[in-house]
Amino acid sequence: xxxxxxxxxxxxxxxxxxxxxxxxxxxxxxxxxxxxxxxxxxxxxxxxxxxxxxxxxxxxxxxxxxxxxxxxxxxxxxxxxxxxxxxxxxxxxxxxxxxxxxxxxxxxxxxxxxxxxxxxxxxxxxxxxxxxxxxxxxxxxxxxxxxxxxxxxxxxxxxxxxxxxxxxxxxxxxxxxxxxxxxxxxxxxxxxxxxxxxxxxxxxxxxxxxxxxxxxxxxxxxxxxxxxxxxxxxxxxxxxxxxxxxxxxxxxxxxxxxxxxxxxxxxxxxxxxxxxxxxx
Amino acid sequence: xxxxxxxxxxxxxxxxxxxxxxxxxxxxxxxxxxxxxxxxxxxxxxxxxxxxxxxxxxxxxxxxxxxxxxxxxxxxxxxxxxxxxxxxxxxxxxxxxxxxxxxxxxxxxxxxxxxxxxxxxxxxxxxxxxxxxxxxxxxxxxxxxxxxxxxxxxxxxxxxxxxxxxxxxxxxxxxxxxxxxxxxxxxxxxxxxxxxxxxxxxxxxxxxxxxxxxxxxxxxxxxxxxxxxxxxxxxxxxxxxxxxxxxxxxxxxxxxxxxxxxxxxxxxxxxxxxxxxxxxxxxxxxxxxxxxxxxxxxxxxxxxxxxxxxxxxxxxxxxxxxxxxxxxxxxxxxxxxxxxxxxxxxxxxxxxxxxxxxxxxxxxxxxxxxxxxxxxxxxxxxxxxxxxxxxxxxxxxxxxxxxxxxxxxxxxxxxxxxxxxxxxxxxxxxxxxxxxxxxxxxxxxxxxxxxxxxxxxxxxxxxxxxxxxxxxxxxx
Amino acid sequence: xxxxxxxxxxxxxxxxxxxxxxxxxxxxxxxxxxxxxxxxxxxxxxxxxxxxxxxxxxxxxxxxxxxxxxxxxxxxxxxxxxxxxxxxxxxxxxxxxxxxxxxxxxxxxxxxxxxxxxxxxxxxxxxxxxxxxxxxxxxxxxxxxxxxxxxxxxxxxxxxxxxxxxxxxxxxxxxxxxxxxxxxxxxxxxxxxxxxxxxxxxxxxxxxxxxxxxxxxxxxxxxxxxxxxxxxxxxxxxxxxxxxxxxxxxxxxxxxxxxxxxxxxxxxxxxxxxxxxxxxxxxxxxxxxxxxxxxxxxxxxxxxxxxxxxxxxxxxxxxxxxxxxxxxxxxxxxxxxxxxxxxxxxxxxxxxxxxxxxxxxxxxxxxxxxxxxxxxxxxxxxxxxxxxxxxxxxxxxxxxxxxxxxxxxxxxxxxxxxxxxxxxxxxxxxxxxxxxxxxxxxxxxxxxxxxxxxxxxxxxxxxxxxxxxxxxxxxxxxxxxxxxxxxxxxxxxxxxxxx
Lengths: 280, 476, 499
Hints:
Chain A has 280 residues and is an alpha+beta fold. Chain A has helices at residues 16-20, 106-111, 114-121, 132-143, 148-153, 163-178, 183-196, 199-209, 215-225, 230-241, 247-260, and strands at 6-12, 24-31, 35-39, 49-53, 63-66, 77-81, 84-86, 91-98. Helices cover 37% and strands 20% of the residues of chain C.
């Protein structure tokens, strides 16, 4: 361990095992002004990508937020493990954790689920990276266990997280939170993503498959679950929409498509249990 | 209600150790750079904050101020527009009598008395005034404002500004131009002659023009001028130019004599500050809309008469809160120095009261050439004013601040709490009557007037719960 | 026609920027096709459909940035230059013209720039005005400030109710919201318990005991020391209970306070009974049960079995001894609890915050028999930092007790967590050691018992702190009640005259 004074880090519980496990060297494969993305050689049961973030960066479910003005650059090596993240001139120690999986049940989500689509319908088409109609198709298919439409669009879009991927992630996350995500679907998406999209996006899709989302998306879902407060929902959506270029919108579309789509009406979970859609 | 699921976006005020404890958890709060309010004011501030009317009343003041749409509709003699009698004279600033009036105000009153035929010369005017032969009142008390000495008498033509929706009106004389003019306390024959010309030629010409053309949207001109480097208090060049464009065709078709039309154009063209006498009543109209709302802490007038600096606040009605007028710090014209300078004077701070002038300095960085300082100061002044104002002006936007609205609507309690005083830039009048302008600069209003206003607001506050219960005492 | 195709690593821009770059380059004179995107298979398909050569991207990975431009021969250089210009990192735009905006001087001004929770710690006579700023902005408040008059507290809480926000305080030292510790707070793990506390150190003790049991919290909502008085009638307590009840992840609600006004107690119990969430109302103090017992009740309600809490015993000899307990506390609730336990067995305990008026200490804070001092009391913290931060008064007193033959046991609390001293053991251990050495030279065996309030993840290191203190001769207990009982046991039974 380096002798330098350790600074605090705030990490997602999803990277807890990696961060606290055996020390290994990760490589920064990409960096922006608010994030450095690390490629982890031995993910074990965790994620192969960790995002080192400044306080301005969106708190990805695979993220570790640190107070830093400059993050390690692409190509540099960062040592992770034993509770710390060690870069060339900084050491960060995980002192605080967040849980990227919101505590919501299917009943919570579907209670006011249709309202989310209403909010999205007020947004201009240019705000989205992926057309709404296509998103609905992909989501409905995922809901009934058909991954093919999703596989056909993963990797489509210019950014680090292609727009189509954001839609699929939103849909997967809601399905996972409801307990309606068929395992074969999740696995198919993960395998396909590993070769058909960026490493970052693949990692985020995998996280979504476990119901892990960014805090802004969690806030939207929580606002939906809360007893009818449209102001709170709109304010939460506004925060989500300001994420990324179109990412926030696309993520929201994926979520809304599941919640408002017809595929799950009177549908069933993988274990055969019926999902209640009626308000309490 | 408090959200429990996500890490809160923190704001801290007080000891920095709390902010440090948050930063140690990788959540950097926004910290308030807090300092105690002016000593002795805390009890008053508590009473006002506890008054259930304060917030809504103040918000209503702001709404009425920014909803006002001032239009220049006419030019009329003061006797007609204001009902000013032959021995009645208005002046800038809070109430003052002849005995205490400053040099420029005395000079201007004497000049006006000569103009009205009440006196032959300064000495006679002085004698009459000292024996209460004339009556004095602030312009502000008659829905009017006046720059520098701001003297208005019965025959003088005044611009009439009207709010489109409510029909309310505000008034101001026509700007005489630069150099030796009545508003700086000059009373020489040339001054009187010019006043006569305004009364007999320019006033009626403008009146005919406006009646022909229809109302001129003054708010719109101010908004455009702010994006052309004016702040409409000390820089009015662009605004004056825009105004000329608006009225030129109708002046030409007014049917007046050709030589009068030419003289009118030469006159307006030669006076960069012609528009000031429209931006001021536009502010007056807006501020007056916000008056007299019980519980409101918004400032509705800031004005000086060369002897005292005074303010009025919406929730305290006609009460004036005054203190000795401060000196102006600035740059002097060639041949003049601080020893020649009079004290701060004029109703033109109505511009700062309504979100322009010194508050819009960021829109007019060139002003530092006249008032001193660096360009960065101009920006900083505007940015600092957001600390003490209630709203970002919906119409007046500052380009370099990414078109952020100017800081508008001064809250007296925020001044006392933050220690930030309104930024005013102003002309400097010569101390002796008749000298004229000697320079321009920045003036800092006295804090005591805001403290007094807050005290008065507190006395009128209606506490919740037991009457007289609120106070700083031992916890039970 | 010339073409340029590149695969780049390491630099990234978001999708909107990349689309803009594509468009900007495509709009250049002489350019017939351009694409700037991550080299995913689908994006490569688009690249191929634009007529670019598939072979040029052979072996491309989706993590590469694909840059492809096709233009007239004499236009390619210009297009490439434009591309580089667009991709170059840009300075962040500032809407303030020059430099950063001036810092806000009031909470009202700060909140106009955003914020969802305000933490106020200005002197008491100024706190009301700042708090009203937050309430009117629809933002909940943690009000650390004390010396706020009760009438102002009531006005604040009524205004808070109208604006649907929560006022935590005045005189609220501890809160945990969204996993963030506010004021003096421990690093706690997320879990099912939500706590409403009129006592900060009480909440710290309970949450740290729960932490030792592996049970986490959703939130700790402080309500201020006076909320449950007859005047304030539990306004914030009742509001906070409602917030926790409606919070889906909170499965158990705890209300923690010293015994309040009886009518208020009744109202709180009645409200608790009406909650949908299971709850426990724990009014701890004289004759009412202690914080450790309350924690046990919580565990039982959660279906878990309470176990004994970790203790660290010193390496020295134990046994009862003649003399008195001298308790030196930084947390008022912990002091109260220790006094209640001790008084029950030993009789009068002198204090600056006595359980009975007749047990009050004089200004010199000295007494011949048992005594316990709350160094966090207002009168002792006027004009100086809180003892959880600045231990100098306690350290001084430890040294004095070391020379006092009447002192048989030192009883101390050490509260860890954010906001507290970064390494209290580093100062206390030598002081305890020195005092014991001093006593030893005088022929006495001075014992020390420490109540350690800390979680497993606290920055000071809970276990390391315990070990250091134990090495100095103190017996260290996570349970304050246990520490107090230990101290009592050390003197009880020995021949002693009550003071």
